[in-house]
């Protein structure tokens, strides 16, 4: 079982330029690079005469200007949101005020949003975000010259959607699958059980290309999805091995498994470990003692725990 994923971090970005990435599909990258956004948020324009904008990105005037320039002479019919993290959805209303279009997303989930770490609450997710039109798994969004199937893929976020371009074997994956890094699963916002279940669904499809919310296109979708699943199984086993060896707290597990990781990503690593431990708890493999919320619990193997396995 491989411990590492092969990431593609070789990319050049010309911010503000609409790049043709497939017939009828253009990409504009927002100038919001960072440890969680890589080179920036990808905004996709789908269609020619009539256009759907997927993930307008953050509230950034230069980026909104670029979208307006790229769609001049076209009608923006839809503004589609993969999930209500601010780097994807904050630009939706300002863009609608400029160009029109119906804001379409999953909508409120009724679940706890945000993550148990500083800076990953309201500044990370817009818990109050509401689309004009909520959609669900299996719905289809149609415009003149394009149609997109809605795939509800929770895990990274409870409201996460992917959009499959009908007839093209092409999926806009948001943050569910990315080629530049693993997806952050940050409880309670994220759920490892949901994430793995969503990956299973993608693995059963026969797509030829993924366009993610950050980073470049993914040319081998099924291979990458399976690698994601294998990596998560391997990571789960390494975390369980730590618990069995007496490395029983999240900070100590992170120090053991992610010692050389960039300091800016240590919080994401801690949240990923928490997500795995929560999934192990759900299946009765480990139990938590002491504080049972946040990152300070003490974990031990459950008396009746069986060998860990991802599903």
Distance between the termini: 16 Å
Q: What class, by secondary structure content?
A: alpha/beta
The overall pLDDT average reads: 90
The Rg value, from CA coordinates, equals: 20 Å
Shape: elongated
Low-confidence stretches: none
- Amount of helix: 25-40%
Assembly level:
single chain
Description:
The protein has 311 residues and is of the alpha/beta class. It has seven helices and 14 strands. The strands form three sheets. A seven-stranded mixed sheet has the order 1-2-3-4-5-6-7, with helices on one face. A five-stranded mixed sheet has the order 8-9-10-11-12, with no helix packed on it. It has a two-stranded antiparallel sheet with strand order 13-14.
Outline the secondary-structure elements:
Layout: E1 19-22, E2 25-29, E3 42-46, E4 50-54, H1 61-70, E5 75-80, H2 86-89, H3 92-99, E6 102-105, E7 133-134, E8 140-143, E9 146-152, E10 161-165, E11 170-174, H4 192-203, E12 209-212, H5 221-244, H6 250-257, H7 266-282, E13 286-289, E14 298-301
Helix pairs in contact: 4-5, 5-7, 6-7
List keywords for this structure.
single chain; 311 residues; alpha/beta; seven-stranded mixed β-sheet; five-stranded mixed β-sheet; 7 helices; 14 strands; elongated
Describe the structure concisely for a colleague.
The chain is an alpha/beta fold and 311 residues long. Helix content is 27%, strand content 21%.
């Amino acid at each position: 079982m491989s411990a590492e994923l092969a990431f593609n971090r070789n990319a050049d970005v010309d911010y503000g330029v609409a790049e043709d990435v497939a017939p009828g599909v253009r990409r504009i990258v927002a100038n919001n690079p960072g440890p969680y956004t890589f080179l920036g948020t990808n905004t996709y324009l789908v269609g020619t005469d009539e256009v759907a904008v997927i993930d307008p990105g953050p509230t950034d005037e230069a980026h909104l200007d670029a979208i307006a320039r790229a769609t001049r002479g076209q009608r923006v019919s839809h503004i589609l949101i993969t999930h209500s993290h601010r780097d994807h959805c904050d630009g939706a209303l300002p863009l609608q005020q400029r160009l029109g279009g119906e804001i379409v997303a999953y909508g409120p989930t009724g679940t706890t949003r945000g993550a148990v770490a500083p800076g990953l609450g309201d500044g990370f997710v817009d818990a109050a975000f509401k689309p004009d039109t909520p959609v669900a798994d299996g719905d289809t969004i149609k415009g003149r010259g394009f149609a997109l199937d809605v795939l509800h893929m929770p895990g990274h976020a409870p409201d996460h959607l992917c959009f499959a371009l009908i007839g093209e074997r092409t999926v806009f994956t948001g943050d569910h699958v990315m080629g530049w890094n693993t997806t952050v699963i940050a409880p309670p916002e994220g759920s490892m059980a949901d994430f793995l279940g969503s990956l299973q669904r993608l693995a059963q499809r026969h797509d030829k290309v993924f366009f993610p919310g950050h980073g470049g296109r993914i040319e081998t979708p099924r291979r990458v999805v399976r690698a994601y699943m294998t990596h998560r199984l391997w990571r789960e086993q390494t975390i369980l091995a730590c618990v069995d060896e007496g490395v029983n707290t999240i900070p100590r597990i992170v120090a053991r498994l992610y010692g050389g990781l960039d300091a800016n990503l240590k919080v994401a690593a801690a949240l990923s470990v928490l997500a795995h431990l929560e999934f192990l708890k759900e299946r009765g493999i480990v139990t938590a003692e002491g504080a049972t919320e946040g990152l300070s619990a003490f974990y031990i193997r459950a008396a009746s725990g069986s060998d860990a396995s991802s599903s």
